[in-house]
Amino acid sequence: MFFDRLSRLLNDAFRPKPKYITVTPVSSAGPAQMLPPSKLPRHVAIIMDGNGRWAQSRGMPRSAGHAAGTEALRDIIRASDDWGIEALSLYAFSTENWSRSKEEVGALMGLLLKYFNSEIDELDAKHVKITILGDVDGMPEPQREALRNAMVRTKDNAGLKLNIAVNYGGRAELVRAAKALAAQVKDGALEPEAIDEAAFEGQLYTAGLPDVDLLIRTSGELRTSNFLPWQLVYAEMVFDDCFWPDFDRTRYLKCLRAYAERDRRFGGRNEPAEAAPAKPTQPSETET
What we know:
This protein is an alpha/beta fold.
């Protein structure tokens, strides 16, 4: 086990990194694009929206859209791994999604099981580390076992950190973290004064990961939908009008380029180097 893990770490350390991220478009999303890896976000989060509407616009059942979305999912994970992105978090199934029709929920659960059964070998071979964000215990038994097995099998991998939000709710995650800290205080293991941002982050599903740098949402919706409210606090956001099944590497790279062109100040201001301090002015008679 030790030598197997050491081999994985060495393979990841000496894995060649691309000089430039590039993709040749297969659609009308734009011309061939190039982006230096130094401009990439460390952590990308994606709300994969629009599967059902994609299918309905083609006269197909919503379940067909979810199946098509799985193909887009597969390629975007591979692209993230190929391009050297550190962490990718995907919103797959929210706690609110249980309210959908029995047929649609059943189709989603079936696709979830099929995906992990068919992809786990490739993901593990590429040293992808899988973490499930959400209440795994609340899943049906076959899906619960598949999710747990994926996490156990890949826990020592040092490649792409793939986080899949399943049975996830952002507010529920915050409440869960608060309860965990409260229990430690009650047991005398933690002083209330010791609770700070780091202590709180340590109780989140994403403990140990960098905050999200870039959030992408497809389908044209302009909201975060209870996804990673703590982790998105300083994230740049890009909203793509296409439905998720149509989201490809060209569109993905376009979103990454938009991120690279942003000026991230984290609440501060970038003052010109030669700017002189503003002179105080006397208030006018009308000012109070």
